[in-house]
Amino acid sequence: MAKAKAAASSGGGGKAAKKKKWSKGKVKDKAQHMVTLDKPTFDRIFKEVPTFKFISQSILIERLKVNGSLARVAIQHLERDGLIKRIVHHHGQLIYTRSVGGKDE
């Protein structure tokens, strides 16, 4: 009986001597962005995006919750239509701004 009590008490002490485990770190949730454009999002892009002061692929992904490739294509269409104008052309990030004069410029 005394041996059982001693074993039980020493078992509890053994847990405190265990090595500390490192934290697993924070896990970021996977973004659920649209892969294809639906009509409301398409209309929203052509209505809202030309009013943004600073336009980039990252901004469209964050605000409109679209895929990166969709954001690039939308930016190309807006530039072709003259709704936005390019500020910086870099292979990593294309930066645009709204066209002040619209299509007339």
From TrEMBL:
<protein>
    <recommendedName>
        <fullName>40S ribosomal protein S25</fullName>
    </recommendedName>
</protein>
<feature type="compositionally biased region" description="Basic residues">
    <location>
        <begin position="16"/>
        <end position="25"/>
    </location>
</feature>
<dbReference type="GO" id="GO:1990904">
    <property type="term" value="C:ribonucleoprotein complex"/>
</dbReference>
<keyword id="KW-0689">Ribosomal protein</keyword>
<comment type="similarity">
    <text>Belongs to the eukaryotic ribosomal protein eS25 family.</text>
</comment>
<dbReference type="Pfam" id="PF03297">
    <property type="entry name" value="Ribosomal_S25"/>
</dbReference>
<keyword id="KW-0687">Ribonucleoprotein</keyword>
<dbReference type="GO" id="GO:0005840">
    <property type="term" value="C:ribosome"/>
</dbReference>
<dbReference type="InterPro" id="IPR004977">
    <property type="entry name" value="Ribosomal_eS25"/>
</dbReference>
<feature type="region of interest" description="Disordered">
    <location>
        <begin position="1"/>
        <end position="30"/>
    </location>
</feature>
